Amino acid sequence: MQLLVLRLDYRSSAVIEGLQNQLRQPNVTPALQLPHIPLLAFEQTAPLQLKAALEPIVSTIASPDFHASDIGFSKDGERFYLHIEPSGALNDLHSSLKLAGREFQNGPELHWPLRIPLIKKVPAPFWGPLFARLALEFNPLDGTGAALECWSVIGDRMTIEWSIFLDS
User: Fold this and answer.
1) pLDDT value, residue 59
2) Which CATH class name applies to 2-165?
3) Would you say 31 and 160 are in contact if contact means Cβ atoms under 8 Å apart?
4) What average pLDDT does the chain have?
5) Domain limits of the chain?
6) 5, 6, 61, 116: which has the fewest Cβ within 10 Å?
7) DSSP conformational letter for 123
């Protein structure tokens, strides 16, 4: 699967990585995800062909701002995330990319979760304590998208295929 993501600016990435490290459980070895906002998912797509289709659109788009003020939790995947408030710039970016990549959509359309993943596969006994800790540690976060990236994901393994940096 190829995942199209919006990578975040350095300052907000550092804040998110700090939260991820505080949420990490002792004796747990899975790597934490790079701070990002998932945009689109594609099945069995050639990453370089996808880049060629999206690059003309991305070159005309300015870096979108985002605001995260709420913490979320999903029992599906046992994951914590930061909820992002919808903005016109993020919606426009998503719509433009979806339109430009429509020829690569060969599977069911995925729901676009407007969120920043923090940590997944949290054991049930830790859900409440970790949520309480996150609520105490997290302050609303404002940031900017810095780059569009294509990741190839197989199981829990992720490879960055390409990056296109956005104009600020």
Assistant:
1) 83
2) alpha beta
3) no
4) 87
5) 2-165
6) 61
7) -
